[in-house]
Design goal:
The chain contains seven helices and three strands; from the N terminus they run αβααββαααα. By secondary structure, the protein is mainly alpha-helical. Strand 2 and strand 3 form a beta hairpin. This is MerR family transcriptional regulator.
Length: about 160
């Protein structure tokens, strides 16, 4: 007698899948475009655009033609969202997806692309930390000046001139 494959009854919601993508996601289509839009924070229009330009593989359709996304699609969207958050241009994201589609022989190229982007992200973080230090300095300076002046008043606008640099 043939052994049947176990039936998964522990299916996660669309939001749960998006928030914690699995390394081996379920590929059965089951999430509506509205659910995916809500879980990902992307608009329905953006999801359709991602599919049209090739960031997502063609999405399965229901018998009535509605898009149905799999957990694998959600895992891809979650990763793309993280890349986008780091400022990666869509063209570079497309290059990465093309490399993934090309197979295992592109591991080195994928790694190189991500290493290069990581360096850009590190530089942006360093720039942001420097900017944050300037903001902290200005906030502390205003707090000290406000504490010294009666009721937070600014005499003759002198404070503003001193703080403009």
């Amino acid at each position: 007698m043939a052994t049947l494959a176990p039936i998964r009854v522990d299916l996660l919601t669309c939001g749960e899948v998006f928030d914690a993508p699995d390394t081996d996601p379920d590929r059965s289509p089951r999430h509506s475009i509205g659910e995916v839009a809500t879980a990902s924070g992307l608009s329905v229009h953006t999801l359709r655009w991602y599919e049209r330009i090739g960031l997502l593989d063609p999405v399965d359709r229901s018998y009535s033609g509605r898009r149905l996304y799999s957990d694998a699609d959600l895992a891809r969207l979650a990763f793309l969202g993280r890349l986008r958050l780091t400022g990666m241009p869509v063209a570079q994201m497309l290059r990465y997806v093309e490399l993934v589609r090309a197979g295992e022989q592109t591991f080195d190229a994928r790694r190189d692309l991500l290493v290069e982007h990581r360096e850009e992200v590190r530089q942006k973080l360093a720039d942001l930390h420097a900017t944050l230090a300037v903001l902290d300095y200005k906030i502390d300076l205003y707090s000290q000046l406000q504490a010294r002046s009666p009721a937070g008043s600014q005499p003759d606008g002198q404070t503003d001139r001193k703080l403009s640099a």
